[in-house]
Design a protein that fits this description.
Two copies of one chain form a homodimer. The first copy, chain A, has 751 residues and is an alpha+beta fold. The relative contact order of chain A is 0.11. Chain A is globular and about 90 Å long. Chain A has two domains: 180 residues, Butyryl-CoA Dehydrogenase, subunit A, domain 2, CATH 2.40.110; 349 residues, Butyryl-CoA Dehydrogenase, subunit A, domain 3 (Up-down Bundle), CATH 1.20.140.10. In chain A, strands 1, 2, 3, 5, 6 and 9 form a six-stranded mixed sheet that branches. The first copy, chain A, has a three-stranded antiparallel sheet with strand order 4-8-7, with no helix packed on it. Chain A has a two-stranded antiparallel ribbon with strand order 10-11. In chain A, strand 10 and strand 11 form a beta hairpin. Helices cover 52% and strands 8% of the residues of chain A. Chain A contains 28 helices and 13 strands. Chains A and B meet through helix 4, helix 7, strand 6, strand 7 and strand 9 of A and helix 4, helix 7, strand 6, strand 7 and strand 9 of B.
Amino acid sequence: MPVFTTNTTPNADLEFERKKTTFDKTKLTNLINGSVKKTLRRNELRAIIESDPIFSNTNNAYMSRTERHISALKKTIHFLKLCRKHGIYNKETGEITQHDDFHLFVYCLCDDPLPIALHYIMFLPNIRALGDDEQQREWLRECRDWNMIGCYAQTELGHGSNIRALETTATFISEEKCGLKGGGFIIHSPTITSTKFWPGTLGKTANHAMVIAQLIDGNGKNHGIHNFLVPLRCQKTHKHLPGVTTGDIGPKLGYNNMDNGYASFNNVLIPRRNMAMRFATVNENGVYSKTKNVSEATSKVSYITMMDVRVLIISDSGLALARACTIVLRYSVQRRQGYIEEDTNNTTKQEQQVLDYTMQQYRLLPLLASSYIFHFTGRCAKDTLTNMQQRLLSSSSKDHPTKIEMQDFHATTSALKSFCTTVSADGIEDCRKACGGHGYLVSSGLVELSNTYLSNNTVEGDNFMLPQHVVKVLLKLIPAVQSIENKHQLMKLKKMYQNCNSCYLIDPLHDMIHSPDSNSGYSNKDVDIFDELNDDTTIPFLLKAFAHRSARLLLQIAKSLQDYIMSGKTTMEAWNLSLIHMHNASQAHSLYILLHNFHALISSKEKNNIGDAPLGTNEVHILKQLGYLFGYYWIHKEKGDYLYDNYFTSEQITYMLQTIIIHKLLPTIRTNVIGLVDAWDFSDFQLKSALGNYNGNVYQEIMNSSYREPLNHSDDGYVQYLRELIVGDVAVWKGNTVIDATQNQGVQSKL
Amino acid sequence: MPVFTTNTTPNADLEFERKKTTFDKTKLTNLINGSVKKTLRRNELRAIIESDPIFSNTNNAYMSRTERHISALKKTIHFLKLCRKHGIYNKETGEITQHDDFHLFVYCLCDDPLPIALHYIMFLPNIRALGDDEQQREWLRECRDWNMIGCYAQTELGHGSNIRALETTATFISEEKCGLKGGGFIIHSPTITSTKFWPGTLGKTANHAMVIAQLIDGNGKNHGIHNFLVPLRCQKTHKHLPGVTTGDIGPKLGYNNMDNGYASFNNVLIPRRNMAMRFATVNENGVYSKTKNVSEATSKVSYITMMDVRVLIISDSGLALARACTIVLRYSVQRRQGYIEEDTNNTTKQEQQVLDYTMQQYRLLPLLASSYIFHFTGRCAKDTLTNMQQRLLSSSSKDHPTKIEMQDFHATTSALKSFCTTVSADGIEDCRKACGGHGYLVSSGLVELSNTYLSNNTVEGDNFMLPQHVVKVLLKLIPAVQSIENKHQLMKLKKMYQNCNSCYLIDPLHDMIHSPDSNSGYSNKDVDIFDELNDDTTIPFLLKAFAHRSARLLLQIAKSLQDYIMSGKTTMEAWNLSLIHMHNASQAHSLYILLHNFHALISSKEKNNIGDAPLGTNEVHILKQLGYLFGYYWIHKEKGDYLYDNYFTSEQITYMLQTIIIHKLLPTIRTNVIGLVDAWDFSDFQLKSALGNYNGNVYQEIMNSSYREPLNHSDDGYVQYLRELIVGDVAVWKGNTVIDATQNQGVQSKL
């Protein structure tokens, strides 16, 4: 079969679009990466990975799961060697985790999930968070030397979000009974539903697991769930240890390199000191005690592991969506369909670029805006988390984050995780669909991106469960605001919430509760207020609308809960009957945070444009357009909520879509669309897409992928089965009349 | 590894739910299948398939594409033999297509796509529609005898919906020049973008293709696209004929059994009579002419092939969604998560069934309702199509469907195809997500269902493109209504549209155009109107709301188009700027049709309950609840459109969600949820789901699937790569201090 060589001449449509770009895209690239220096380092590391044939992803789509897993292990070992070779590890501890370059290497540059990932993402941070000093010393050394490869085993076959219901037990057993010095614990899976199920790296790779189990002390008392380091496999032979059964859980929608695993324990004895003992201990007599001198804030550190992963997920949501946008938008300026004018003579005319259909712009440009906005909010959340982690480690309790701050951060990251991953997963799929038929090809690059990304909607708190956490925290503001009697108290409350994301809710809640008749809407005012898009008025206008909706939905839930309880329902019944509203309220909260953070970033760059990644006026201008589009798009999308209380009139809603979105924002952003996706600066290696290459050549790349399909190199199907049908036994297959086989040769080609 | 034997004792939760069912589910099963007789026949055929090990799907998830394709070919041959054995073929012609049992066999019972499918779905119907009598005789005989296996090759690499732009050429060549008696055509692919791409069955299976190409006559004049039968492979050896290149296009998101293919033609000569000549011919001198005595209606028959597939897709949308609902709802009554009451003593309490969360009901029960409603509208559309096909074949032109009727049917099936497949694809994915983590497992049965189903959003008219066709047709009503001056003219227009789905638009359009100030909303009326759910008032109320929205959105588009044109835009520009609204209008039209058809079916069953699948009062009652839920759910979901023109007030909208949906409809349907999914009567073989089995046993089935994963039977990953890391060269992997490997044995289990 002919293979088209990759054309290095850029596609003319792409070239044309690139020339239209009104800003310097390298400035945005540096902003996205964090600094000029980081971009340069990224380029250096990327060159190492992409020039190395071991990291090739070309044949991924044709491998079986076993082949892909093994190929990913091969990459893992090679990757770790490269880290050593290029000095990307901590020279004192031998670890490479938490090194900036490492994250870049693993997540952004190999572009193929490595089975060892959960060792880094969950196992090591968990040891650091929950092990006492001695345990950290010992266990981290074992990790450094690769005697220990671990995973984090929490979820069970029958138990997910409700971790209190986990069934695995860790029962204290005295030295006398078990023979281990200082006593031990018996780890046991009492039922099939208690089988540990889902942990990444558990199936085939890990030889240890941090197992979350119900701790039962020497007196048979249950102290709830705690963490236990359980050896799974022999460190010399990798064979299972007695009583331990683990394996891979089987094929999944995506993420199939990873050996997500199951584990079942049949009375497995571990040393007592394998319980993580930073915050609680069990002594040699089986007596449980909380560790003394642990402040409330410090004890919260155990939540940090989960928040850390959640923040990572928020940050990655922008990145994943940006990849999909890059592919579909590059393809959408090259793909042409439909004539611009009705005409019967169709032989000479060129068809229209599909991106020039308003519908295509309306589907895709808000997603492009979201990718930027999610990314920067992810960075904000990361900064806040780092700040809180540092303060938690301080010896002075004055430095510790307050309980309100911790809860607020938990609520906000929960809301953002739920919202951003929903928009990104749906958005990636929308990008795939917006590629038309070719989006259905694995070679589009969107199939594996979408399928693997979809796990983010469920892991680390299901997106439909998290809103409950959000609302539970935010609702606390309502009695606080209700009890305000004067300006002084209002100021005091705002001060308590000054470091909190939810601070913005105080003013609108105060207005709604204390002056319910005030018209806080824009109705009846002249629509001219919308006409000029400028930062001084537009962003405050949008943020006010987002804050209003968020506050109103929260108040509606409070009222609904109260009404149910007054009518005799239990708290749980009332809560259950209000769940649908909570989903909405959590989304409204996210929208405010996202636009607020994005605006704050651009403003700070605009006002004080020095530092690591300076922006010029043109870059600031285009980023602002993305913010406006995000704001107006979501107000229009949620128009029902704004018409509901007449915050906006129907005319205003129509004006937003017709005049602001369709006539102003979409055309402005459309001009810069290729610049905006190029600024993300994904390499062709990373995109793995026949549709999204930097230089285009879409159709050649598709055909080259087709030619690689192994089915095209096999005749087994014909030889084994089809042949029998076509030339087989006449009695079985043919009709009543036996046909002269030569008679039909007329329809065969003679050239 | 232990394999759990399948427990034949039904799960207690499922048993309990089944006992609550208030109706006779076999009556609904018969209604779904069409009649008692059809159910019995289905059971008979199902037993044949399911007892035959060749049809086993157990290992599908572990096969490579090549293996799956070959396995599906094996099933194809065996299936055709079984059809012969059991008399499922037309004894006169040897064909088995268009035989009721055949569709059942292929689509519903094997439950694994057969590569030959497009031969039946597209190739044979196309010969019947476009071949002249002699061609039909000759070609169908070749098909009967399996000398000819065909596909339908329309789409090209660079050309999808805009078929006028297809590039493949069929150029007449005289006998003198080519040596074929009577002359021939040269089939040619002039560019890479003209490569035929996507046709199912083309890649490896077909030896002929019906190729759609630009016909260029003996004078070099282009007559637009026509159909040509092109031999691809030798009927004896299955080798490609000279000038023909075909192959499989490579891995896709789903539908990977099927060899969707590409084909490129390098000046391939075919006989002149290989052009399908029912409606147009080219004579031996290369002169093109339309066939005489073909009525306008009859010439429309060429559209029928596409409508036929579209109707099939509408019908299947309900079936596919019902499968997903069956899986997730059976799982949701067995899966438990979260305690019902806050309590610190969690050791003895049982967790709550996840279906008892309002959010879970709100996510899933409207989908269950949709599955029923789509299925029956699919049947309606099928009946209408059959009726039109029969009338088209009539010799009396009075019997032929009118142009208005044809266009209306085209618009309505386009709208329904777009809407039903969008809701079903999104709905199947929602069902998958609503299974929590386990929905991400291939063994959930939802992964392949979803991935394969998703192609329906793009094929046979992209869901974002079709609304244009819908609106183009519906808009014609507006000048017609505008020109009405009296009751007589109104009656006349209604008569013209009496057989049309869009007839319902005439009254609300008439009101809006001729009495724009009349309040056709329900605002300001007492909300008591909603309080009693009964057929006499509720369905007309819902239909009126649906019709109102549909008419208003259509009128808004007409106005928007007019405004743009008045402001100097071209028609095409105005059209482009209105695309976003068209999507919405097409959806609104679909909603009316769906509820109307469903209601008509139930009413007819209620009033005249005899015939093939009689229903009792209880069955009618529960079906009505599904109709109500569908209606109220969509009004609430589209509340923005109803608040927009004050058709409903905010209080009414809230009342619909809180009182009608949450308090009345969800609990009523929740009681019957297992009965309603059981009524679809999918077998475990069909569902292929560890989560959706009839008897439950969810956790055993998941574990059994995990044990089958081939990765669990291979140590290659460890031996080839991991081993080096864990026990390999200390200098490469270990830290600064060499650790005594024996020192750490304390953490190893000693049991």
